[in-house]
Design goal:
Blueprint: H1 2-45, H2 60-86, H3 90-111
Helix pairs in contact: 2-3
């Protein structure tokens, strides 16, 4: 009876050792794969430009830039309202709207110093 128990215990230990070796090999493969993908990701992302963090810029310069942009938008909006009041035809109103949308980046570049 004790020989039978010893044989079964030896067999269970051998199976446990095989399972442990398989788990260790799988863990090593996972680690190698993770390291390889991390290296590839780092290699490709190092070439990309860095993005600014998401959120609102703070500080005096950012506040001044927001005020300047707001004033420019208010000026263009006032000119569009004036055009809507003065001109009765829709073509002129639409043209003023399109011109103001296209002129915004140019005016911002010309009027707002960086």
């Amino acid at each position: 009876m004790s020989k039978e128990r010893a044989r079964r215990r030896e067999e269970r230990e051998r199976e446990a050792a095989v399972r442990a070796a398989a788990r260790a090999a799988e863990a090593e493969r996972r680690e190698r794969r993770a390291a390889r993908s991390k290296a590839v990701r780092r290699h490709t992302t190092d070439r990309l430009p860095r993005l600014r963090p998401v959120g609102r810029d703070t500080g005096a310069l950012a506040r001044r830039r927001r005020i300047q942009r707001g004033l420019l938008v208010a000026l263009l909006l006032a000119l569009n309202i004036l055009c809507w009041v003065v001109r009765p035809d829709w073509e002129a109103r639409l043209a003023a709207l399109v011109v103001s949308v296209l002129a915004y980046p140019v005016l911002q570049h010309m009027l707002v110093r960086r």
